[in-house]
Specification:
The chain is α+β, with helices and mostly antiparallel strands. It has a single domain, classed as Cytochrome p450 (Orthogonal Bundle), CATH 1.10.630. It is 42% helix and 8% strand. It has a 5-stranded mixed β-sheet. Strands 5-10-9 form a 3-stranded antiparallel β-sheet. A two-stranded parallel ribbon has the order 1-7. The longest helix has 32 residues. The radius of gyration is 22 Å and the shape is globular.
Length: 445
């Protein structure tokens, strides 16, 4: 049996076997969308693809193509022992479901899944039910109320300040790298940029910011629990009365005391939503951009003075190497043909909107090199009420980070692109490491 990259798939130890998802269609006995076997229910096929294979695929574009070839725009996937979800790769269906259609909800309490064992760590934070009223796990009026503080806090952050902080942090980190011969860019540049810049902009002191981002990243990896929320609450409480340079409350202070929150835990979960998306989203976009620069000479030339500016080049990353794999899970509010005539969705079925697959959909993007310019159909920022609130700040930070690094050092990938491993993360696709050799820009050969 083949895995996503055409190699024999390892034994997963799960009670349900897996079908090939690239290079061939479903195995014998699996669902093939047709009038003879439709509509299929989520747990009907004996063998379905394993979601972990998609998350770790070396060639994720081939993985998406293999899923479409074998299953169409909607594939049943295995999350873990005894737990499945519908993986939606079609643009129109994703947009319809993401725009609060009343067909699905983000509330994890609506899930009908009963795993026979613990979910894999990368999925636990997205399917958790202990978090209470988090922004991602609410819809309707509750979501609108919890989203207001995030939008207002980010709107209050001055773009000039983001640029100034980003330049100072990136200059310092790149200068440190210029004195090294080898480095892991993910550990020594990408992650620190995300943590230090966004933490500073929010008004977190360096030590507290490091603690907050470490807790948020651990929770996203499925390594934290409710006690982590208590620790975040303590840290937020210590920052709530902090004052900025102008004597007013810092952004994190505004967040902690926002009038929209009904209980203190909501402010803590609001901060968690903000810093998790900022940390992992920035790492994914910046990591993917640097990897492309290290492995694609054409893209590198665009970044360093080619026919496209850096913003256009970063848009190309969103199309050709999407930093987002899937949006937060949704759960069906009704049963029926929610995802098309070939499937029958039960109430409470988990639905994953795979925005990372959209850019490779031939119905959305043509073959021309200019087709993605100024086109936001890649959905990397999400769509509808759950759209990312920090897109402007993210672009400023990633642009500065890429420009600064490539101006001050000349990194060369120290391994083959095929050996790059991907972090096991449902929502964000980012390299686990980027080992490079370094020399100062302009150094002789």
């Amino acid at each position: 049996m083949l895995g996503l990259d055409g190699k024999p798939a390892p034994v997963a130890g799960a009670p349900t076997a897996r079908s090939a998802v690239a290079g061939s269609g479903p195995a014998a006995g699996d669902h093939v969308p047709s009038s003879a076997r439709s509509p299929v229910r989520l747990y009907e096929p004996a063998q379905v693809p394993l979601l972990a294979d998609v998350l770790s695929a070396r060639d994720v574009t081939a993985a998406w193509s293999g899923l479409r070839e074998g299953w169409g725009d909607v594939a049943p996937v295995e999350l873990g022992p005894g737990a499945r979800a519908w993986l939606v790769t079609g643009y129109q269906t994703i947009v319809m479901l993401a725009r609060n259609s009343g067909m699905v909800t983000a509330e994890t309490s609506a899930w009908n899944g009963e795993p026979r064992g613990p979910l894999p760590a990368p999925l636990r934070s997205s399917f958790r039910t202990w978090a209470g009223s988090s922004v991602e796990a609410e819809d309707g009026q509750a979501h609108a109320r919890l989203r207001v503080p995030l939008d207002e806090v980010l709107d209050a952050v001055d773009a000039a300040e983001v640029d100034q902080v980003a330049r100072a942090v990136c200059d310092r980190l790149a200068d440190r790298l210029s004195g090294l011969e080898t480095a892991d860019l993910m550990r020594e540049y990408v992650a620190p940029v995300a943590h230090l810049v966004f933490g500073t902009v929010l008004g977190l002191d360096r030590e507290t910011g490091q603690q907050v981002f470490e807790l948020a990243d651990a929770l996203a990896r499925g390594e934290g629990d409710a006690s982590s929320i208590d620790e975040l609450s303590f840290l937020l409480g210590g920052q709530a009365m902090g004052r900025g340079a102008d004597g007013g409350l810092t952004p994190v202070g505004l967040l902690a005391r926002h009038r929209a929150y009904e209980v203190a835990d909501e402010a803590v979960l609001g901060m968690l939503s903000l810093v998790t998306g900022a940390s992992l989203g920035l790492q994914a976009w910046l990591g993917q951009a640097l990897l492309l620069a290290l492995t694609d000479q054409r893209f590198f030339q665009r970044l360093t003075g080619g026919r496209l500016g850096i913003d256009e080049a970063l848009d190309e990353v969103l199309w050709d190497a999407s930093p987002v794999t899937a949006l937060a899970p949704r759960f069906a509010l009704k049963e029926g043909h929610l995802l098309g005539e070939d499937t029958y969705v039960e109430r409470g079925d988990a639905v994953l909107l795979a925005v990372g697959a959209v850019a490779s959909d031939p119905r959305i993007r043509g073959d021309g090199s200019w087709d993605g310019l100024d086109n936001r159909a890649h959905l990397a920022w999400g769509v509808g009420s759950h759209r990312c609130p920090a897109s402007r700040q993210a672009r400023l930070i990633v642009r500065t980070a890429v420009e600064t690094l490539l101006r001050q050092v000349e990194p060369v990938l120290a391994t083959s692109a095929e050996e790059i491993r991907w972090a096991p993360d449902l929502r964000f696709r980012r390299p686990e490491s980027l080992p490079v050799t370094l020399r100062p820009t302009g150094a002789g050969t």
